[in-house]
Amino acid sequence: MISVVLIASEDLPGLAAQMAMLVPAAVDGLVKEVILVASDELGGEAGVEALAEDSGARLVQASGDHLAAGAAVARGDWILTLRSAPALREGWREPIEKHLAGGAAAPAFLTVPGGLLSKLSPRLHGVLVRRLDWPASGGDEKALAKALRARRLDY
């Protein structure tokens, strides 16, 4: 159902932690695939390649818009963008599943859980967009969420 587009970084432990949080959702069928997008220079690093291979993720190397490169090969009905940090925490699935079950097909953005400051100025964790609605203009997650008028999902 969901293709996760995960932007690779040199933080291999962070990437591994992020991917580990996706495993239960993959087993349950919520996550259809994980697409690990790395810059051309980073994709050639043995650690990123090994992580993709060991986890079953698809490795895509890109020099431009990493999110667009991942979205271009996604096969799920929905795309969830993520980065290696901050790592997902327990409970991340509930607001996404609730949003998808609502049937509105509206884009949404997931915010990082936290204290009072996160309520006033939420930290973006990822953007959830139907694959067919992925904009041609691309951009980073903040620009994407704003352009799509995405709904906020807290967990």
Q: Would you give an account of this structure?
A:
This protein has 155 residues and is α/β, with parallel strands linked by helices. The chain has one domain (2-153): Spore Coat Polysaccharide Biosynthesis Protein SpsA, Chain A (Alpha-Beta Complex), CATH 3.90.550. The chain is 38% helix and 26% strand. It is built from seven helices and seven strands. It has helices spanning 12-27, 40-43, 46-55, 66-73, 93-101, 116-120, 141-147; strands at residues 2-7, 31-39, 58-62, 78-83, 108-111, 124-130, 151-153. Strands 3-2-1-4-6-5-7 form a seven-stranded mixed beta sheet, with helices on both faces. Strand 1 (2-7), helix 1 (12-27) and strand 2 (31-39) form a beta-alpha-beta unit. The radius of gyration is 15 Å and the shape is globular.
Q: What's the number of domains?
A: 1
Strand content: 25-35%
What is the string of SSEs from the N terminus onward?
EHEHHEHEHEHEHE
Report the biggest beta sheet as strand number plus sense, adding barrel if it closes. Answer: 7 strands, mixed
| CA(first)-CA(last) distance | 20 Å
- Oligomer designation: single chain
pLDDT average, as an integer?
Answer: 87
- Quick one: CATH class? Alpha Beta
**Number of DSSP strand runs:** 7
Structural class: alpha/beta
Gyration radius, to the nearest Å?
15 Å
pLDDT below 50 for ≥5 consecutive residues: which ranges?
A: none
- Name the CATH homologous superfamily: Spore Coat Polysaccharide Biosynthesis Protein SpsA, Chain A
Tally of separate helices: 7
CATH architecture: Alpha-Beta Complex
Do you know the CATH topology? Spore Coat Polysaccharide Biosynthesis Protein SpsA, Chain A
